[in-house]
Each structure stands twice: as structure tokens, then as C-alpha cells.
Amino acid sequence: MAERSGATLARLQEPSAPATPGNLAPVVEPTVVPAAPAPPLREPALSTAEMSALLMRGDSLFGGGDIASARLFYERAADAGNGQAALRLGESYDPAFLARVHLGGVRGNVSAAIFWYQRAGDLGMSEADLLLGSLQAK
């Protein structure tokens, strides 16, 4: 095997023929094809029944104190364009709301609450503006 690699090395070190117009390969410029833009990240459309099921399951988990799991169901519906789910997500992070419903052991997150209230407003939930205003006033 050492003999074989030595022969290969000798061939690589041999001088090649001088470059002349007759023995040069034509230079081909690479064609640059622009990449297609990535499709927007959107959840597949959900039926009204599926949206309702996600909200009901989220509400059930929220009522049972499993806030982290409830947020997953609300987020799935909100990502599919449900304003009510986005509003409930905002509430699940809103420290004032959590205190009002006696979930003091659940840690609030003001910036997450603001994000989801804004998203709910973008999805047509007018009450999100009120909740957002009261949250930002504190």
C-alpha cells in the first residue's frame, strides 16, 4: 500500500505540460441561481371545531393549575390565527391577572404578556388593547 501511495505522489509531483491555448479547458462561469424565498412559517389552518377543542383543553388545564400545558394549547391556536387564544396566552403571563385568579405561585412574564396582548390585538381582539394599556401603566 505504501508503494501505491508513493506512485500516486510521484505522479502528482511530475511537471505538467506547459499551458497553451490548445490544451486549456474552457472556463465555465458558475451559474448562480437565487434561492427561492422560504415560505412564511405558518401553522396549517385549523377548523373551527379544532380551534374550539384547543381552547377548551387549554381552559381545562389552566383551571387545573397546569399553566405550562395550557399555554401549549393556546399557542397552537394563536399561531393558527385565533385571537381569543392569543388573549388567553397574554393573561397566562400577566402578573396582575395571575394575582387576580389567585395563581400567585405561577411566575408572570410582562414582556411575554405584552407580546401576546399585541398579537391578540392584531388578530382583532379589542379588549387586548385595554389589558395591554393596564399592563404597561404599571
Describe this structure in words.
The protein has seven helices and no strands. With 138 residues, the chain is an all-alpha fold. It has a domain at 48-137: Serine Threonine Protein Phosphatase 5, Tetratricopeptide repeat, CATH 1.25.40. The radius of gyration is 31 Å and the shape is extended. The chain starts with a helix and ends with a helix.
Write the layout of secondary structure elements.
Layout: H1 2-13, H2 48-63, H3 67-79, H4 83-93, H5 95-100, H6 110-122, H7 127-137
So what's the overall shape? extended
Question: Pairing-aware structural class of the strands and helices?
Answer: mainly alpha
What does the oligomeric state look like here?
single chain
Count of individual beta strands: 0
Radius of gyration: 31 Å
User: Helix coverage percent of residues?
Assistant: 55-70%
CATH superfamily of the domain at 48-137: Tetratricopeptide repeat domain
Write down the CATH class of the domain at 48-137: Mainly Alpha
Name the poorly predicted regions: none
The CATH architecture of the domain at 48-137 comes to: Alpha Horseshoe
Largest sheet: none
* N- and C-termini, Cα separation: 78 Å
Mean pLDDT: 80
